[in-house]
């Protein structure tokens, strides 16, 4: 807090300005370090409004936690840790006649010396401070009427249940929802998701979790790095150098040797629309479509396609979304590549969202500027999980790998440059496209453009 009324939050080297406040508001805000009741700044007074604005700003930066405590002795029951910037604790109303059950995506686990309740669907995780809550959660593995739970649960707290309901950790079962098992999760698009796959997706991408991701070297002082090349096995050695040459012997072998990542693009001579069309035609276009008969008795006929890269089960679940920043002949914006029609279809997004997407890619590549075209590889999850269930997500990531290599080779062949990007923000993509994160979302990214140092095609 500065003398001129400005408040900034800082952690390590990172500092964020939160605005200017009156002396009275600053005084109240001081209490945020130990805890201010949410109701205290939900009032109409000018000071309450200022503190409310400050709290929302802190929340958007992930700097607030929310304690739920017993009214009598102020013992913490749970502490809520937001995972998404929009999270604000809300209670979804429950009546005595309502029946609730835990979502099948909810899980309790040890984190350090704490027990946390999480779900890939939730915008926050709940640190459980009172072990009696664990017993109530165990009882909620079966549907429970609120009135009955109130009588029998070791620690009944309606506020907590309503907060959990708001976070989709609890489900409120309607009469038609039956037992709350998989097909009654309240969203038909979740039926095909296995638990581990949805956790994996949300915890290995940005946007729906607050853990640091990327090259953080978290345990570098505990475990030494592994060598670049695996030490050989001690067995008998057959030296292959006697049988092969290390000089490329075909145009393809030469192309493989030439391929490398390019992160710095020539913005004076950007990739052209004609080159982009050629690149997509070479690497991603639908070549033919066909149908197969039923896989099992009574099963439906399934439509398939062939494309230039391999895909598990010929599912071709991957879709391409192009964030265009600098392409000659093509306006800045977000486009979906219609691989069947070989066409780009514009999607209305804000300039700010587009900028945020490109800036994240620029950061991930430690590049001097945004990629000319940023390709987000999104998966239509249901297309592959309909058949493969528990291995669906791992197959998707393998498909992304084969697609990325295809992109690298096609770009190199055309004298263009590109770079794979290991992170993607699934929440930003969901906002831009208005597609729910578990229906269709990013699983990979590739930056494309004309590299500053021209690659000479063979
Ligand atoms: C799955 C995958 C993710 C990658 N993610 C990034 C990334 O986020 N940022 C980056 O600068 N490079 C990324 N790369 C590029 C690698 O750093 C690069 O392939 C590697 O250093 C080898 O260099 P080369 O591609 O020039 O041969 C990624 C590559 C792959 C295959």
Please provide a brief summary of the model.
This protein has helices at 23-29, 46-60, 131-139, 146-152, 158-166, 195-203, 251-258, 273-283, 351-364, 381-388, 392-413, 426-433, and strands spanning 6-11, 14-20, 66-69, 76-82, 99-102, 107-111, 114-118, 124-128, 144-145, 170-173, 288-292, 302-306, 318-324, 333-338, 343-347, 373-380, 417-421, 440-449.
Description:
The chain has 458 residues and is an alpha+beta fold. The protein has 3 domains: 6-61, no CATH class; 68-186, Outer Surface Protein A, domain 3, CATH 3.90.930; 246-449, NADH Oxidase (3-Layer(aba) Sandwich). Helix content is 28%, strand content 22%. It has 12 helices and 18 strands. The strands form 5 sheets. It has a 6-stranded antiparallel beta sheet, sandwiched between helices. α1 crosses α2 (46-60). The longest helix is centred in the C-terminal third of the chain and has 22 residues, at 392-413. It is globular. It starts with 5 loop residues before the first strand and ends in a 9-residue tail after the last strand. 32% of the residues are buried. The mean pLDDT is 94. Bound molecules: flavin mononucleotide. Flavin mononucleotide is lined by residues 260-261, 263, 364-365, 404, 419-423.
Layout of secondary structure:
Blueprint: E1 6-11, E2 14-20, H1 23-29, H2 46-60, E3 66-69, E4 76-82, E5 99-102, E6 107-111, E7 114-118, E8 124-128, H3 131-139, E9 144-145, H4 146-152, H5 158-166, E10 170-173, H6 195-203, H7 251-258, H8 273-283, E11 288-292, E12 302-306, E13 318-324, E14 333-338, E15 343-347, H9 351-364, E16 373-380, H10 381-388, H11 392-413, E17 417-421, H12 426-433, E18 440-449
Antiparallel strand pairs: 1-2, 3-4, 4-8, 5-9, 5-10, 6-7, 7-8, 11-12, 13-14, 13-16, 14-15, 16-18, 17-18
The structure holds flavin mononucleotide (FMN).
Flavin mononucleotide binds near residues 261, 420 and 422.
């Amino acid at each position: 807090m500065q003398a001129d009324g400005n408040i900034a939050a800082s952690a390590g080297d990172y500092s964020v300005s939160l605005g200017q406040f009156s002396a009275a508001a600053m005084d109240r805000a001081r209490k945020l370090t130990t805890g201010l009741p949410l109701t205290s700044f939900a009032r109409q007074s000018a000071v309450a409004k200022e503190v409310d604005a400050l709290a929302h700003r802190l929340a958007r930066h992930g700097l607030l936690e929310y304690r739920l405590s017993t009214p009598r002795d102020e013992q913490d029951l749970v502490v809520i840790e937001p995972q998404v910037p929009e999270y604000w604790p809300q209670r979804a109303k429950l009546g005595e006649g309502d029946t609730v059950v835990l979502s099948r995506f909810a899980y309790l686990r040890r984190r350090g010396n704490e027990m946390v309740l999480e779900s890939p669907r939730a915008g926050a995780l709940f640190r459980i401070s009172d072990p009696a809550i664990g017993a109530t959660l165990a009882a909620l593995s079966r549907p429970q009427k609120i009135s009955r739970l109130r009588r029998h649960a070791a620690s009944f707290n309606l506020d907590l249940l309503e907060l959990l309901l708001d976070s989709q950790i609890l489900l409120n079962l309607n009469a038609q929802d039956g037992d709350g098992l998989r097909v009654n999760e309240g969203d038909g698009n979740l039926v095909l998701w296995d638990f581990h796959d949805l956790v994996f997706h949300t915890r290995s991408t940005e946007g729906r979790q607050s853990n640091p991701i990327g090259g953080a070297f978290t345990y570098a002082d505990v475990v030494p790095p592994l060598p670049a090349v695996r030490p050989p096995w001690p067995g008998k050695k057959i030296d292959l150098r006697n049988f092969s040459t290390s000089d490329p012997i075909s145009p393809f072998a030469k192309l493989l040797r030439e391929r490398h990542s390019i992160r710095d693009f020539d913005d004076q001579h950007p990739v052209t629309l004609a080159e982009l069309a050629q690149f997509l035609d070479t690497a991603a276009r639908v070549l033919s479509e066909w149908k197969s008969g039923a896989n099992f008795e009574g099963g439906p006929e399934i439509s398939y396609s062939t494309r230039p890269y391999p895909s598990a089960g010929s599912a071709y679940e991957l879709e391409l979304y192009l964030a265009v920043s600098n392409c000659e002949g093509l306006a800045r914006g977000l486009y979906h590549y219609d691989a069947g029609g070989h066409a780009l279809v514009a999607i209305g997004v804000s300039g700010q969202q587009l900028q945020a997407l490109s800036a994240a890619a620029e950061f991930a590549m430690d590049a001097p500027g945004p990629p000319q075209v940023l390709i987000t590889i999104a998966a239509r999850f249901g297309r592959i999980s309909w058949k493969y269930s528990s291995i669906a997500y791992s197959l998707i990531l393998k498909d992304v790998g084969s697609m990325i290599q295809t992109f690298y080779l096609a770009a190199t062949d055309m004298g263009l440059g590109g770079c794979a990007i290991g992170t993607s923000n699934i929440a930003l993509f969901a906002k831009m496209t208005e597609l729910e994160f578990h229906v269709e979302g990013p699983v990979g990214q590739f930056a494309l453009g004309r590299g500053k140092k021209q690659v000479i095609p063979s």
